[in-house]
Amino acid sequence: MGYEVASLAKLIEQFERMPSIGHKTAQRLAFYVLDMSEEQAKGFAKAILDAHEKIHRCAVCCNLSEDELCPICSKTDRDMSVVCVVEDPRDVIAIERTREFNGTYHVLNGVISPLNGIGPEELTIKELIARMGDGQIKEVIMATNPTVEGEATAMYVSRLLKPLGVATTRLAYGVPVGADLEYADEVTLLRALEGRQTI
Questions:
Q1: Which tens digits make up the pLDDT trace of 121-154?
Q2: Based on the structure, what is the number of domains in the chain?
Q3: Which long-range contacts (CB under 8 A, 24 or more apart) does 59-66 make?
Q4: Does 159 lie in the same domain as 126?
Q5: What are the residues whose beta carbons fall under 8 Å from the beta carbon of 112, sequence distance 6 or more?
Q6: What is the CA radius of gyration of the chain?
Q7: Please, what sign has the CA dihedral across residues 62, 65, 71, 75?
Q8: How far apart are CA 164 and CA 141, in angstroms?
Q9: Contact, 139 vs 82, CB < 8 A?
Q10: CA angle, corner 151, sides to 147 and 152, nearest 5?
Q11: Residues 47, 84: one domain?
Q12: Residues pairing with 84 in the sheet
């Protein structure tokens, strides 16, 4: 005969729905939540509800924001002539960590993936094209992931931008720092050779 506390089982089930969370990790998280004080548990629940209620897409770049414009689009010291197109808000965070990019972003919120039923209409491509209307944008950097879907999305968007006279570039790919060449696959080595630079 099994032993189950219904509320605990439901909590574990909710954690299991999260990406990369298996049953054991979900159990640990559920017991962690149970060990919280009532005040901490209410604060945790409130943080989830607040995030759901307050966070929406930026009116310009479709990144996450609590205001009409995200913190990047609302800054006046950013280079508005360069737009870096990414798949996901997490990609914005990754690029911002470098502290080297001073342009703006456009978040597609996914990639074209016919096998998963995701076409161009499900992404924010129309919003990106609409941003080109004022002629302020001179370069679009395609920073989608180097997957089949990411490459296909980058090619699709670049074809749409070409008639608009906007320069479209792609992030360089190659051998990661600290890696051994003997373990790199052929495609990575090919990209590294194509993207070589003068030193």
A1: 999 999 999 999 888 999 999 999 988 899 999 9
A2: 2
A3: 60/104, 60/131, 61/104, 61/105, 61/106, 61/107, 62/106, 62/107, 62/108, 62/109, 62/124, 62/127, 63/89, 63/92, 63/105, 63/107, 64/89
A4: yes
A5: 118, 119, 120, 123, 149, 152, 153, 156
A6: 21
A7: positive
A8: 15
A9: yes
A10: 115
A11: no
A12: 105, 141
* Predicted TM-score (pTM) of this structure: 0.82
Interval 41-89: pLDDT, tens: 999 999 999 999 999 999 999 999 999 999 999 998 999 999 999 999 9
Distances (CA, A) of 53 to 15, 26, 37, 123: 20, 25, 24, 22
Question: HSE of 166 in the Cβ direction (CA atoms, 13 Å)?
Answer: 27
- Which CA distances in Å does 105 have to 80, 108, 114? 9, 10, 25
Q: What distance in Å separates the CA atoms of residue 121 and residue 81, rounded to the nearest whole number?
A: 25
Tokens of 41: 């548990």
Do 99 and 138 lie in one domain? The reply is yes
| Tokens linked to 181 | 């060449």
Joined tokens for residue 125: 């491509």
Name the token pair of 110.
């996914």
* 3-class DSSP state of 5: coil
